Amino acid sequence: MSRKYNFCAGPSALPFEVLNDLKTELLDWQGHGLSTMEMSHRSKEFVEIAETAKQDFIDLLEVSDDYEVLFIQGGASLQFSMVPMNLLDDQNSICDYLDVGQWSIKAIKEAKKYGNVNIAASSAEASYKKYPSPESWKLSENSKFTHLVVNETIDGVCLKDLNNLPQTNLVADCSSCILSEPLDVSKFGIIYAGAQKNIGPAGLAIIIIKKDLLRDKPNLPAMMSYKTYADSDSMYNTPPTFAWYLSGMVFKWLKNNGGLMNRKLINESKAKKLYSYIDESGFYMNDVDVNSRSIMNVPFLLNDDSLDSRFLSESEEAGLLNLGGHRSVGGMRASIYNAVSEEAVDALIDFMKDFSNKNG
Ligand SMILES: Cc1ncc(COP(=O)(O)O)c(C=O)c1O
Question: Which class for 73: exposed (0-12), middle (13-18), buried (19 or more C-beta within 10 A)?
Fold first, then answer.
């Protein structure tokens, strides 16, 4: 077996130790004679797996009792609809959105179907390369909530300083930054994240929602209502049991490896190395405002884009997978989520140096 270094933006690398443990217990979970995929979600065993995973997630992010943690299928994209469907009263209800990249645009498109969307700030004119600072956001009066994508995965742009956020009902898409560092949950009304980057298998999303935002809305389909999930421990219907179980294994791995404070140190060190090399190389470049650079997604361009396809094929041959940028922007992107080791980043930098020596 030879595992390569995977820089995919999602679905992304999973910790090797977790995959190894999974292999051990895949056919026979802890001597019960079946895999977790084959268990009833109502069984004592699975309920314990589910509750432990939820508690570990709560411990990692220090989520207080004021919040519910929900496990919902449909990925982060379903949340683009569920948020406005649950929080707005009718088409006249006002909500604020930040337009900071392509995931924001998708969220805005959905919200417009359910309410009156005010764009509180946009970085479109800066080609989405700079996150608008909270002081510049123009929030509406009577807004039901303010939606932001904290880390825009495609352009590698993020809101770094979450200390001075406005005291409104903040709804944050943290799909590509959740669990990468500690987060003060109390600043938010809702935090949601698709699982396939720092959590586990694709298809699942985890939602942290303040209890006072759970509403009975009689006309809302049951499966679209946060309250349905909160009232049923996210088991109103059959949940994505395998994704839930594997996510729980990732949470244990994080806890056993120094929690989120340690993750922050490792992630910052990986990102610093990579950005420093790109900046000094003269061969590669990253055009994101330095104060908005993501520590999870590092897009970069080759000064000579005619070398792009050679870079991609040779990097793949060297065992460095999925370095192509998003299909909408091209170039390169290294996603260096939690499970991408420091060693993987070193290997990438070595390859980049070598490629620039040969082609520069
Ligand atoms: C920031 C962000 N939001 C939303 C999504 C959509 O997630 P999903 O494919 O789980 O619906 C992604 C996917 O990459 C993302 O990066």
Answer: middle
